Amino acid sequence: MSSELLNENKDLRRRLTAVLANARHNDERMRRFHEQELQLLSTSGLIDLLRHVLVGHRQVFGLENVTLLLVDPEYELRRLLDELGCNDSFPELQFVESGNDLAAFFGTSQLPKLGGFHPEQHATLFHFGSMPASVAILPLLRQRRLIGSLNLGSQQEGRFISGSATDFLERLGAVVAIGLENAVNHERLKHIGLIDALTGVHNRRYFDRRLIEEVERVQRTGQPLACLFFDVDHFKRVNDTYGHQVGDRVLQEVASRIKAQLRLSDALGRYGGEEFSALLVQTNPEQAMDIAERIRVAIAAEPFRLGGEHNLRITLSVGMAVLTPEDCAGDLQPCAERLLAKADEAVYQAKQGGRNRVVRSESSGMGLIPGE
After folding, report:
1. Average model confidence (pLDDT) for the chain?
2. Could you read off the pLDDT of 267-322 as tens digits, one per residue?
3. Which residues, including other chains, have CB under 8 Å from residue 22's CB and lie 6 or more apart?
4. Running DSSP on this structure, what letter comes out for residue 234?
5. String of b and e for 27-57 (b: at least 16 CB within 10 Å)?
6. Taking every pair of C-alpha atoms in the chain, what is the biggest distance, in angstroms?
7. pLDDT mean over 8-23
8. What's the Rg (C-alpha) of the chain?
9. What's the predicted TM-score (pTM) here?
10. Labelling 271: which of 4, 74, 278, 317 has CA 20 to 30 A away?
């Protein structure tokens, strides 16, 4: 065989080896993508989905940057994350109130944008971590509506080239958008089941669940947890005199005024009837008494203007108890029950003491603030 034929044979073998290697690489990439796709479509919780998108994609596809931009005009997504206690858990996640700039970026084609990194175009999308060398910006679309973008960045300049692998990336963007929609709808359903329909604050089911979580936090962090119980004074008299519609409006206004005095990290629930309860995280007795008194004054100081002749003076009796790490060694449920029992006993003492006052449970060093 001539040397020319030998060289040609070697060249063909090299090409075949390269083709086979590329095929194996593509097969492996598709396998990993298929696994990610199944995880995204089977994940119902919003937190797990965000982890898969922001952490999983970076690890599985060997990327240095993965960020997510979501259009959230009504602050719904941010409120959901607040309720889940993790609004600051994903620095790679950001929100915009309008999708107009994003829509202009993608243009009428609404296709992925691949190419080199240009700060004037991409810096706001890659706000977290080091700046990449090449990027792929994927539109997230549901019912032809742009809901955000998934932003992939690599330190390799040629990793993302304009016009390459767009079918794969289009599919990835579609799967992420579907996963996000499913997760948000799932959280909406859970949220509805944990909200009191009349007052718009959480219900007892949510409060009891949150209480266990916060008691566990006390054991883990060593920071105290305060519990406030509120009972609307003479509420039966309001119902009997003015009717249940006015009574409902009183409860709505009470919930609104209490909530206005609490922090985002605190939890407020309607415990039943005219009773409300609040958990004040990482709050010592002195701070809790100050908050409780501010709430009592906020209710008592201004009459409830309910229209017509129904401008009512409403007051609250408030009981307060604090759980410290020393109080909650052992199982979570008994610790939670003891805290509730102390706050409940304190609100009963406030009632017995003349109403419109704050009483601190004896275990926290009994104190009383009477109404004016």
Report:
1. 86
2. 999 999 999 999 999 999 999 999 999 999 999 999 998 766 668 999 999 999 99
3. none
4. T
5. eeeeeebeebbebbeebeebbbbbebbbebb
6. 112
7. 67
8. 29
9. 0.56
10. 74
Q: What is the token pair recorded at 67?
A: 């960020």
Instruction: Report how far residue 320's alpha carbon sits from residue 100's, in angstroms, rounded to the nearest whole number.
Output: 49
Q: What pLDDT is stored for residue 364 in this prediction? A: 46
Write out the catalytic residue numbers: 274
Tokens of residue 120, six digits:
């004037």
Q: Residue 118: count other Cβ atoms within 10 Å of its Cβ.
A: 9
268's CB contacts (< 8 A; 6+ apart) are 201, 202, 255, 258, 259, 262, 276, 277, 278
* Spatial distance between the Cα atoms of 361 and 14, rounded to a whole number of angstroms: 82
- Strands 304-305 and 316-323, by their bridges, are unpaired
Kindly state the DSSP code that residue 262 receives in the 8-state scheme: S
Domains and CATH numbers, the chain: 3-192 (3.30.450.40), 204-369 (3.30.70.270)
Token pair recorded at residue 340 = 């509730």
Residue 24 has a pLDDT of 66
Q: How far is CA 358 from CA 287, 344, 350, 367, in A?
A: 13, 12, 6, 8
Q: Tally the residues of the chain.
A: 372
- Are the C-beta atoms of residues 238 and 250 closer than 8 Å to each other? yes
Sheet bearing 113-116, strands edge to edge: 93-96, 65-71, 145-154, 134-142, 113-116
